[in-house]
Specification:
This protein is α+β, with helices and mostly antiparallel strands and about 220 residues long. It has nine helices and four strands; from the N terminus they run αααβββααααβαα.
C-alpha cells in the first residue's frame, strides 16, 4: 500500500463534502487504484489455494465510495474507507467470502458471512449442530488459532435460537448473528512491504471457515 492512500482517507474524513472531493478526485483515483492493486495481489495468492478465486476481476470487488444517505441521519456523501467483497459468487452474494477494509486505524480482513438472511443463518446453525466435529476442527485448527485467534463474537443473541437446548455445547456459536473471522493490521503494518504476503497467509487460514459455511449453504441461492 502507498502512504498517500491512507492519507487521502484521513483527509476525506475531515472534509467529507462534494466540493472537496471534486477538487481532490485525482488523489481518490490513485488511492482506489492502489487498493485495486492490493486486491489483485490477494486474489493472485488465493487462486493458488482455491480455484474458485480464479478469474475474478479485482475492480468488480470494490464498493463505491459514495454513501446511500436516503435513510440515514448522517448525510456525509462519502465513506471514510475503501472496501472490497472478494467472493467466488460475486460482490453481492450472500455466500461466504472475504471482505477487505482499508481505513486509517481500522484496516482488516474478514471472512465468512455478515448478518446473513435468516434462511442462511438457520442453515449454518444447523450445520454447526449436525457437523460439530467438522466445525470445531476449523476453529480449533492451529493455523486458524495462530493467524486469527477465534470467531468474532461482538454481535450475538441474548438467548439461544429456538429449537436448540439452552445448554447446547456450542451455544456461544449458535447465538452469533454473523459468522466471521477477523484480523486487523495497524496503518504501519499495512504500509510494510510484507502486507501482501500477510494478507494471503491470513486468507488461506480463513478458507476452511468459508468452505464450511458454504457447504451449509449448498442448496440456498447465492
Amino acid at each position: 500500500m502507498e502512504k498517500a492512500s491512507l492519507q487521502f482517507l484521513k483527509n476525506l474524513n475531515r472534509n467529507n463534502h462534494k466540493d472537496w472531493f471534486d477538487q481532490n478526485r485525482p488523489a481518490y483515483d490513485l488511492a482506489k487504484q492502489d487498493f485495486i492493486s492490493l486486491v489483485a495481489k490477494f486474489l493472485n495468492g488465493m487462486e493458488k489455494k482455491d480455484a474458485a478465486y480464479s478469474g475474478i476481476e479485482p475492480k468488480t470487488c470494490i464498493f463505491r465510495i459514495n454513501r446511500d444517505v436516503r435513510f440515514s441521519a448522517n448525510k456525509s456523501p462519502y465513506k471514510n474507507h475503501l472496501g472490497a467483497s472478494i467472493n467466488a459468487w460475486g460482490r453481492k452474494s450472500s455466500k461466504a467470502g472475504f471482505y477487505l477494509h482499508l481505513e486509517p486505524d481500522n484496516c482488516f480482513l474478514a471472512a465468512g458471512v455478515w448478518m446473513p438472511p435468516a434462511s442462511h443463518l438457520q442453515a449454518i446453525r444447523q450445520e454447526i449442530d449436525y457437523q460439530t466435529d467438522a466445525f470445531l476442527s476449523v476453529i480449533n485448527n492451529p493455523t486458524f488459532k495462530r493467524e486469527i485467534g477465534s470467531l468474532d463474537e461482538s454481535d450475538t443473541l441474548v438467548n439461544i435460537p429456538k429449537g436448540y437446548p439452552k445448554d447446547h455445547p456450542q451455544a456461544q456459536y449458535l447465538r452469533l448473528k454473523s459468522i466471521l473471522a477477523l484480523r486487523g493490521w495497524s496503518d504501519k503494518e499495512m504500509l510494510d512491504a510484507s502486507i501482501e504476503k500477510e494478507l494471503v497467509r491470513t486468507g488461506v487460514a480463513m478458507l476452511p471457515l468459508i468452505h464450511f459455511i458454504n457447504q451449509a449453504l449448498t442448496d440456498l441461492p447465492a
